[in-house]
Amino acid sequence: MSLSRRNLLQGASGAATACLMAGGAALVAHPAQARPAQALRPPGALPEADFLAACVRCGLCVRDCPPHNLRLSEFGDGVGRDVAIGTPYFVARDIPCEMCEDLPCVKACPTGALDPALQQIEKAQMGLAVLIDHESCLNFLGLRCDVCYRVCPVIDEAITLEKVSNPRSDRHAMLLPTVHAEACTGCGKCEKSCVLEQAAIKVLPRELAQGQLGGHYRKGWEAENRGFQPQFNLPTQRLPEQAVPGDLAPLRSGAEPYARAASEAQR
Ligand code: SF4
Ligand code: SF4
Ligand code: SF4
User: Fold this and answer.
1) pLDDT at residue 147 tops 60
2) Whose CA is nearest to atom 3 of ligand 2?
3) DSSP notation for 129-190
4) Ligand 2 atom with minimal separation from the 60 CA
5) Pocket of ligand 1 contains residue 70 by CB under 6 Å
6) Which stretch of 17-26, 65-74, 212-221 has the lowest confidence by average pLDDT?
7) What is the model's pLDDT at position 169?
8) How far is the CA of 49 from the centre of ligand 2 (A)?
9) For the whole model, what pTM was predicted?
């Protein structure tokens, strides 16, 4: 083969290899940019960009996860198709996190992609539950369900039931599941257990689920804000001593909402 022809072929094969490598890199890099909302990271995962930089795709966290809720993403169908290749994730509706007290996934991680500073699973923030569909949730329809509330491992802290008047009957209460972000670990048990065909409550990555107040807002009713805020002697709202139909306060207190006032009863 002449030198020029060999050079030509080498050049062509080099260019083809470079193209393949670039294509492969693009394929691998693309899913890393957009993680589907259903794909939750294990407890202690660093913020996504730092996590992707630190995770060496060894799969040790997946190996040591007792309920096998963690998976390594791979090419193919399903949620994992769009998660950065080889990185661990779980889908709450399939198998939620069991919130192991000894955090085997975090202990298995050799790189700190799952932050070893996380010592208590109750402090994990894998995601945030959101009651996403008020129109289908059985409790919002005035029926009794509460399943998501009862399965929550942080019951009465991460999810509470807020009692409000049912405007449809005007004499019954509705118990609305309400999520509290500071206590929710994002384990996904509520989403897994929702009795509907499609869960009305879903766990989403926190950056999708949570809003953020502008820094200029001050909650004047919080103690730490009172010191440097102008003090207003706001008038206290005076509620009527006797409830009228539609009042929510008596329902919250458990008082009988339609009992007649003593003065009225004597007449
Ligand atoms: S806490 Fe337990 S169940 Fe949850 S991801 Fe880690 S090993 Fe798996
Ligand atoms: S153990 Fe750590 S480095 Fe290995 S796959 Fe899991 S998160 Fe990534
Ligand atoms: S389990 Fe589902 S339907 Fe039942 S209260 Fe919770 S969100 Fe509503």
Assistant:
1) yes
2) 55
3) EEE--TTT-TTTTT----HHHHH-TTBTTTEEEEEEE-TTTSSSEEEEEEE-TTT-----HH
4) 1
5) yes
6) 17-26
7) 82
8) 14
9) 0.75
Q: What percent of the chain has pLDDT over 90?
A: 59
Q: Whose CA is nearest to atom 2 of ligand 2?
A: 109
Q: What number of other Cβ atoms are within 10 A of residue 167's Cβ?
A: 10
The position carrying tokens 């008082």 is: 255
- For residue 147, the ligand 3 atom closest to its alpha carbon is 1
Extents of the domains making up the chain: 48-123, 128-209
Nearest to 174 by CA among 185, 165, 187, 183: 165
Q: How far is the CA of 148 from the centre of ligand 1 (A)?
A: 20
Residue 43 beta carbon below 6 angstroms from any ligand 2 atom? no
Question: Ligand nearest 144 Cα, by number?
Answer: 3
Statement: 48-123 belongs to CATH 3.30.70: yes
Same fold for the pair 48-123 and 128-209: yes
For 128-209, the fitting CATH number among 1.20.58, 3.30.70, 3.40.50, 2.60.40 is 3.30.70
pLDDT band for 245, please (50, 70, 90 cuts).
low
Residue 232 tokens read as: 């207003």
Ligand 3 center to 104 CA (angstroms): 30
| Residues forming beta bridges with residue 130, ordered by sequence position | 202
